[in-house]
């Protein structure tokens, strides 16, 4: 055996071992009245991933679209639609600083998993792994669909809902959530226009036990602001400890608490009743989105002078003297703003190193969002999804809409009309 033959021999052995260790799951998918059904294989697994540059708060919106899909499939009688949806761990988000290694942050660090599960059958990636680890050392996803827009959509003006396997527009290598032990068998590109719920058509057409949807953000909401939308949104309660940290800050610095603010929510969002009687703490909150917004949206993003003027106007109008600032801008901007508003009390949340280390930028952002949500009056940044999530939170808490849907203007009196998504009772 010469060297070439020798190495080919070992490559073959290695391939064989790989195949043995990774056989497909489709034959273990369980359909009704099938004696193959065991507790473990009665579900298929749906995984989804989002375009790398999308931020945390847009990803939360994509989650809602897929949670609604998973919710509807769970309610269906069709056994072929029995899925568990695997939550994509948070890694390498563009706005967050990160090291070379992916963080793989589980959803439970930021959200109350039990609450999510009351709406949709979701599991963490590590749970998905542990279900397979017993049998296999590597996960081989049976079908991957990378969503893409129809290239002809704007030329032909065809905006009908449709889906079709087509040639891939994007030829980047798939990254599988930055795991080295996940690969795929079948990869397709799916030109797609329509809501995420339309994907059931695809799932009914395949018996694959594991399906991954890439570029999930291409799939849209079926309805914006209907009852199902708000159920999904309400189920996204934050990790309780983050709420506690935010509550401590409110109590200590802003003299705000749920009793006096009239913002107590029932333990379970399923019992939430329509109301619009939240008062909020005696402070106004401002979400001041800077960094890339300053550069990429010069016509919308105000300078600090203008921000200070706009804040002053509202403080006078509401007869308040306390401001909470949530911002991704540098510390010296906050200091400058404080100097411009010396007659008022300005606050900003600064995490201790322990909290920063445990919850990272995502957790700090959520704490800022919570504190903004409980203010008497909120002013956000035009077109920021970070702001949208705060506005939704305030709708859920029952604030009057005119205390919520306000955004900073470029200069006083020159404003964009904010998009308003209220809960309609
Ligand atoms: N702590 C904190 N972080 C912020 C604030 N505003 C923005 N950030 C950070 O900047 C990131 C970018 O905002 P995201 O809303 O997640 O990004 P996006 O989904 O692209 O949304 P926008 O760019 O805001 O439309 C957030 O994930 C935060 O880490 C803020 O007020 N407080
Ligand atoms: C894949 O690797 C990750 C660590 O990178 C590990 O946590 C997980 O359990 C592994 N999965 C399987 C199926 O071995
Ligand atoms: C379903 O499968 C058939 C046969 O493989 C294929 O021709 C059709 O395009 C598929 N439909 C969808 C929605 O994937």
TrEMBL record:
* This enzyme's EC code(s): 2.4.1.221
Residue ranges that the Swiss-Prot or TrEMBL entry lists as coiled coil: none
BP GO annotations: fucose metabolic process
Name the reaction it catalyses: L-seryl-[protein] + GDP-beta-L-fucose = 3-O-(alpha-L-fucosyl)-L-seryl-[protein] + GDP + H(+); L-threonyl-[protein] + GDP-beta-L-fucose = 3-O-(alpha-L-fucosyl)-L-threonyl-[protein] + GDP + H(+)
Q: Which family does it belong to?
A: Belongs to the glycosyltransferase 68 family.
Q: Which GO terms describe its cellular component?
A: endoplasmic reticulum; Golgi apparatus
Query: Which superkingdom does the taxonomy of this entry point to?
Result: Eukaryota
Q: Which GO terms describe its molecular function?
A: peptide-O-fucosyltransferase activity
Q: What is this protein called?
A: GDP-fucose protein O-fucosyltransferase 2
User: Keywords of this protein's UniProt record, alphabetized?
Assistant: Carbohydrate metabolism, Disulfide bond, Endoplasmic reticulum, Fucose metabolism, Glycoprotein, Glycosyltransferase, Golgi apparatus, Signal, Transferase
* Protein location: Endoplasmic reticulum; Golgi apparatus
């Amino acid at each position: 055996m010469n060297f070439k033959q020798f190495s080919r021999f070992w490559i073959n052995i290695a391939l064989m071992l790989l195949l043995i260790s990774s056989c497909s799951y489709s034959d273990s998918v369980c359909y009704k009245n099938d004696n193959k059904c065991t507790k473990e294989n009665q579900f298929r697994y749906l995984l989804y991933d989002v375009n790398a540059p999308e931020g945390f708060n847009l990803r939360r919106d994509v989650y809602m679209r897929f949670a609604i899909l998973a919710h509807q499939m769970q309610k269906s009688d069709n056994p072929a639609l029995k899925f568990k949806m695997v939550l994509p761990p948070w890694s390498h988000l563009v706005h967050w600083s990160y090291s070379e290694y992916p963080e793989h942050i589980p959803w439970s660090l930021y959200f109350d998993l039990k609450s999510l599960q009351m709406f949709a059958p979701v599991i963490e990636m590590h749970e998905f792994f542990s279900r397979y680890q017993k049998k296999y050392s590597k996960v081989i996803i049976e079908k991957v669909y990378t969503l893409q827009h129809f290239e002809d959509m704007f030329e032909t003006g065809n905006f009908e809902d449709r889906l079709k396997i087509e040639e891939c527009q994007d030829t980047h290598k798939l990254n599988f959530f930055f795991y080295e032990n996940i690969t795929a068998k079948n990869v397709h590109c799916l030109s797609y226009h329509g809501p995420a719920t339309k994907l059931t058509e695809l799932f009914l057409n395949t018996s694959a036990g594991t399906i991954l949807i890439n570029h999930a953000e291409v799939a849209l909401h079926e309805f914006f602001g209907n009852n199902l939308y708000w159920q999904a949104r309400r189920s996204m309660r934050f990790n309780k400890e983050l709420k506690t940290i935010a509550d401590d800050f409110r109590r200590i610095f802003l003299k705000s608490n749920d009793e006096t603010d009239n913002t107590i929510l029932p333990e379970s969002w399923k019992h939430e009743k329509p109301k619009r009687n939240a008062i909020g703490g005696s402070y106004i909150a401002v979400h001041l989105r800077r960094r890339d917004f300053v550069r990429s949206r010069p016509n919308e993003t105000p300078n600090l002078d203008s921000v200070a003027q706009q804040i002053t106007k509202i403080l006078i109008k509401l007869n308040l003297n306390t401001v909470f600032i949530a911002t991704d801008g540098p510390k010296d901007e906050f200091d400058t703003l404080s100097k411009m508003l010396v007659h008022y009390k300005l606050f900003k949340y600064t995490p201790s190193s322990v909290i920063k280390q445990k919850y990272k930028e995502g957790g700090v952002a959520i704490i800022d969002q919570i504190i903004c949500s409980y203010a008497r009056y909120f002013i956000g940044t035009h077109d920021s999804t970070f702001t949208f999530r705060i506005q939704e939170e305030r709708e859920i808490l029952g604030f009057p809409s005119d205390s919520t849907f306000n955004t900073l203007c470029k200069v006083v009196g020159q404003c964009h009309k904010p998009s308003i998504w209220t809960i309609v009772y």
